[in-house]
Amino acid sequence: MMGNITIETRVHASIEKVWKFRTSPEHIIHWNHASEEWHAPREENDLRIGETFSFTMEAKNGSEGFDFTGTYDDIKENKTISYTISDGKKVSINFSEDSDQTKITETFEAEKSHPVDMQKAGWQAIMDDFKKYTETK
């Protein structure tokens, strides 16, 4: 076991808007990528305990891509989402409102095939893209 990695951001938007943009496929397709060279052409999300999600991430030039899939373990609207990725690793996302912004803290189990710094940077880049998209829409 490699341990956990935690990332966070503060989004200048209400917790209701942050929750909606984080969980709705019509918004996920706009922010779920770590760089401008990638995009998210297909997003399926059944936000109920025991149900699944499948997020497709692909290089815009078609050279590579993958599906990020998992099953929801716990959901408390506008507060927390916990899920298990298809490879068995656990992820939890916590939302908290502070005046005119929403803090998001995401913790995930590190994997062995990539360096921890690389994993943290990739997940943080996606979160940063989410922040940018949510604050400008």
Oligomer: single chain
Low-pLDDT residue spans: none
User: How does the major sheet shape up?
Assistant: 7 strands, antiparallel
Order of helices and strands: EHHEEEEEEH
Report the portion of residues in β strands. Answer: 35-45%
Q: Summarize this, please?
A:
The protein is α+β, with helices and mostly antiparallel strands. It is built from 3 helices and 7 strands. The relative contact order is 0.26.
Keywords:
single chain, 137 residues, alpha+beta, seven-stranded antiparallel beta sheet, 3 helices, 44% strand, globular
Tell me about this structure.
With 137 residues, the protein is an alpha+beta fold. Helices cover 27% and strands 44% of the residues. The protein is built from three helices and seven strands. It has helices spanning 15-23, 25-31, 116-136; strands at 4-11, 38-45, 52-59, 65-76, 80-85, 90-98, 101-109. The chain has a seven-stranded antiparallel beta sheet with strand order 1-7-6-5-4-3-2. Helix 1 (15-23) packs across helix 2 (25-31). The longest helix is centred in the C-terminal third of the chain and has 21 residues, at 116-136. The chain is globular.
